[in-house]
Amino acid sequence: MTTASTHWAATEFDQLDLGDARLNKRARILMERFAADPMASIPKASLGWSETVAAYRFFDNENVDWQDLMAPHWQQTQQRMAAYPVILCLEDTTELDFNGQETKGLGPLSYEAQRGMYVHPTYAVTPEREPLGILNAWMWARTLKDADGQRGGPKESLRWIEGYERVAEIAPDLPGTRLVYVADREADLMPLMARAQELGTPADWLVRAKHNRCLPNGDKLWAHTTVGAPLGEISFLMPARKGAKARTVRQQLWARRVELPAGKGETVTATCLVAREIGAPSGVTPIEWRLLTNRMIDSAIDAVTLIDWYRARWEIEMLFDVLKNACRVEALQLGSIVKLERALALFLVVAWRIAYLMRSGRTCPDLDATLFFDPDEIHSAYLLNDQDEPDNPKLNDVLRLIARLGGFLGRKSDGEPGVKTIWLGMKDVYVAAKTMEKLRDRANAKTYV
Q1: In this model, does residue 336 exceed pLDDT 60?
Q2: How far apart are the C-alpha atoms of 23 and 118, rounded to whole Å?
Q3: Are 69 and 344 in contact (CB under 8 A)?
Q4: Are strands 288-293 and 232-238 parallel, antiparallel or unpaired?
Q5: For residue range 171-185, what is the model confidence (pLDDT) as tens digits?
Q6: Hey, which residues does 207 pair with through a beta bridge?
Q7: Which segments within 387-440 are labelled E, that is strand?
Q8: Which tens digits make up the pLDDT trace of 255-265?
Q9: CA dihedral 31, 33, 37, 43 (to 10 degrees)
Q10: Mean pLDDT estimate for the chain
Q11: Are 55 and 46 in contact (CB under 8 A)?
Q12: Is 292 exposed, middle or buried (0-12, 13-18, 19+ CB in 10 A)?
């Protein structure tokens, strides 16, 4: 029988260096525990009291820097990126609400009375939406407003510019891969576009426009772009959302090369792309996207490609959903923001792992399951579903079995499993796999007595 292989966390954190082998080992153990049952509290995820104490000591350790914790994952992410011709570097911010907790160092959120912190990662995905990992991240808490209503600390808009600069720094290390920085309306910042142009645009950028800027000739950007006949049309299925059913969306496309005023007589050369819905159902607000990019658009195919890239931005929203609802990070009680940052560094990787499994099962269903799961985990998935294991189990077959343990029914009308049923099912699979490992260890120990 095949023995259990190295846990994925050990591979992902192979280059981890916290300056102490014991800290490195503890970090890998914590990653394995959190990945096995992301919804569990730290005591519940730990195996016994001594491991619980060790976990809290790890998060209390002032010598552990959260960026050092994430560094090996960043390296692994870059290695995965090198295998693809185009990588979308998605950037966004999410707020974590710790209201009611006595955690030191937190600050106000969208409402001044709320207490929490912000996380701002850059997430690498393929155009087919396969998530490859997190490239970098920022974590911070806002300061309170002073008597004049002003808030101290660095401007939060700098995160977007720094995010592009980090992507630009990586670009020379990946000469065979085109990097595309993709962000929503908060990134519609002239300093970001000017900085990209100043650097020679080593990475492409694509942001959703927030400002209807005035052009040098006096025209408004959006009206100027949509003059004349549309370049073409696009049609796609808009998934169901809260309060809205799934529906087919048809949009007409316009694109125009423009010079955007950048202050002090300077301009930034960009392309404005407008996708405007036609034939929207009665009572439904038509969907209109206005995008800005450094890239040229010479045809409807170019425009459709960029829209598809922008639509892939939803993957970072899924990452945040997993982080909050699967990993339940807002329930962490660690006493200070610095301790929270250490835990969040691990949970960000766990959230990526869950999303990665789900997407890989859809985009590459016939891949060898052993590339993603330990042999014991595969054995457990088949055993718990009372099915015989084939000689060469496929990724999607194993994922569907895992999801069934998490409540996925697997009917034809159900489509493919989502992240929730996968993370719920992985808990049972992990317990069964660890049981197999312990039984095998005991049997081996008796053999050599």
Answers
A1: yes
A2: 26
A3: no
A4: unpaired
A5: 999 999 999 999 999
A6: 183, 292
A7: none
A8: 999 999 988 88
A9: -120
A10: 88
A11: yes
A12: buried
